[in-house]
Amino acid sequence: MSKANDRQQPLRLTLAPPPDAIERLFRVFGDELIPLEQLRARYFRNMNTETFKAAIGTERIPLPLVTMVTSNKRQQYVHLRHLAAYIEQRAWLADEELARRLSPPDDGQE
What we know:
The chain is mainly α and 110 residues long. Helices cover 48% and strands 8% of the residues. It has a three-stranded antiparallel beta sheet with strand order 1-3-2. A hairpin with an 8-residue loop joins strand 2 (66-67) and strand 3. The longest helix has 23 residues, at 80-102. The protein starts with a helix and ends in an 8-residue tail after the last helix.
């Protein structure tokens, strides 16, 4: 197992991606496997290439990396289903955060 895979955190999802999300992403990227640079340019524009590559597959961006060959120069990808699930998870977390902020403070009185 390579060192890049050693630091990769498992993707633990609270929600499965809906099929229509996968279909929409397929229309955007045109393939099941998304090259890292395309993913960075689309969803992580605030990060430069080096920062993004260091963050992906870690706790910061917990997306598993897929490779097709075992080589030091191998191309790395993110699978469409993982991306769809990650987007759904981030949306769910955003919804939870909004609900928390909008809920009235608990003053302990009944």
